UniProtKB/TrEMBL annotation:
Species for this entry: Devosia geojensis
Lineage per the UniProt record: Bacteria, Pseudomonadati, Pseudomonadota, Alphaproteobacteria, Hyphomicrobiales
InterPro entries referenced in this protein's UniProt entry, alphabetically: Phage_T5_Orf172_DNA-bd (IPR018306)
A Pfam short name: MUG113
Boundaries of every Bacteriophage T5 Orf172 DNA-binding domain copy: 281-375
Record protein name field: Bacteriophage T5 Orf172 DNA-binding domain-containing protein
Length: 401
């Protein structure tokens, strides 16, 4: 009899052609239901990856969980008997063992804790606090510090920075993902001031991203040799992570002009959409850097008809508003700094006449950003761009300021 219906109700429903379904009570225990549900998740993984889940820190957190769970199911006879009719892929036979330190008695929550999950998830597919192997390595790099043998050389730098902070000459700003790490800059990490003393030549890492080994000095007299991206990640994840900006040098590149002043122009950085082989091969680092006193969009309206813009459309990737400045001198200064990376290319104009554009440079955007900051704070003197290291370097070596 269907639950909630009388015999008369059932008979009436049958006469009307409505099938009466009787809800069957499950004969499985709650534990057996959980075992089956967990095994079905493993089966979905096998169907998607065409292999059984495997152990290892380089594996996805879910795969590692499935691998340990599968080991447990294989080792328990009652689980094998229960799941045998459902094992369409034959994954209950054979396999590697769970790594040392992960015991059979752990439940999923304890297992997640050992695998790097900081708090209890509501569901195995809802992991909000999982630390990847890369994140754990970054944290270990930051924590692995040693005494700085020549700290007496850096101590005056920290003292001077603190004086400038106290006097309001420097400010701290939240470290953002777009912020770049560079030698000579100060940051705040874990409540301590950190100074990037040196940076080795940047090279692509295993994921194709540019990375570099740093020597970072902390104001407590310790130092650490860590990767640039490890420091970036630590600063982003630290609620108090900050960057200490350079002293202001007046309204040259102020965020807004003083009362009564008029904006003098905008430094713009463009990226070309040209399909010219020399452009397409270096599109991500090829930029046009110019200065205009008018509207940038209007300046670019006819880019595809102008050889200055490589006879192609462009996109604006950065702009910097400036005040009360000589635009021609500023543009000459920028082009001098990046002169060694100027693009050597000849473009035909609409009439077939050859033109050699002079404002395109093979320079990463973060270096342009750094140059603008150094122009803003007045420290650009003596700097030029070195294409070999993809960084700004001093033409003449100087002692620490």
């Amino acid at each position: 009899m269907a639950k909630g219906f009388t015999d008369e109700d059932d008979a009436l429903l049958e006469e009307l052609g409505v099938e009466v379904e009787t809800k069957k009570e499950s004969s499985r225990t709650p534990r057996e239901e959980r075992v089956i549900a967990g095994f079905e998740e493993i089966q979905r993984f096998v169907e998607q990856r065409s292999r059984a889940p495997q152990h290892g820190e380089d594996r996805d957190i879910f795969e590692r969980l499935y691998a340990v769970r599968l080991d447990r199911l294989r080792e328990q006879a009652d689980c094998r008997n229960l799941l045998a009719p459902l094992d369409h892929h034959g994954i209950l036979a054979g396999a590697e063992s769970a790594p040392t330190g992960i015991g059979d008695e752990l439940d999923d929550d304890e297992l997640l804790a050992q695998l790097g999950v900081d708090s209890e998830p509501t569901d195995i597919t809802d992991l909000r606090h999982v630390r990847s192997a890369a994140e754990k390595r970054a944290a270990e790099e930051i924590a692995n510090r040693q005494q700085c043998g020549d700290f007496n050389k850096f101590k005056p730098l920290f003292e001077q920075v603190q004086k400038e902070l106290n006097a309001g000459l420097r400010q701290t700003r939240r470290f953002e993902r777009k912020s770049e790490i560079a030698p000579g800059r100060f940051y705040i990490l874990g409540g301590q001031k950190a100074y990037v003393a040196t940076m080795e030549q940047p090279t692509p890492n295993e994921h194709g991203n540019i990375d570099a080994r740093l020597r970072v000095i902390f104001d407590n007299g310790t130092e650490s040799n860590l990767l640039m991206r490890s420091l970036q990640k630590a600063l982003q994840q630290d609620p108090g992570g900050r960057r200490i900006v350079e002293p202001s040098a007046g309204p040259l590149f102020a965020d807004q002009n003083e009362e009564g002043e008029e904006a003098s122009g905008i430094v713009y950085v463009l990226r070309s959409k040209s399909d010219h082989p020399a452009v397409a091969a270096h599109r991500d680092v090829l930029h046009k850097i110019g200065v205009t006193g008018g509207d940038v969009a209007r300046r670019l309206a006819n880019a595809k008809l102008d050889p200055t813009f490589l006879m192609a459309d462009v996109e604006v990737v950065a702009t910097y508003e400036l005040f009360n400045i000589n635009r021609a001198r500023l543009e000459n200064l920028i082009h001098r700094i990046f002169g060694a990376a100027r693009l050597d290319i000849e473009i035909k104009d609409r009439f077939g006449q050859p033109v050699i554009p002079r404002e395109w440079f093979l320079v990463p955007l973060f270096v342009v950003d750094e140059a603008i900051e150094k122009i803003r704070d007045g420290t650009i003197t003596g700097y030029t761009y070195d294409p070999k290291t993809a960084s700004l370097t001093r033409a003449v070596s100087e002692d620490f300021r």
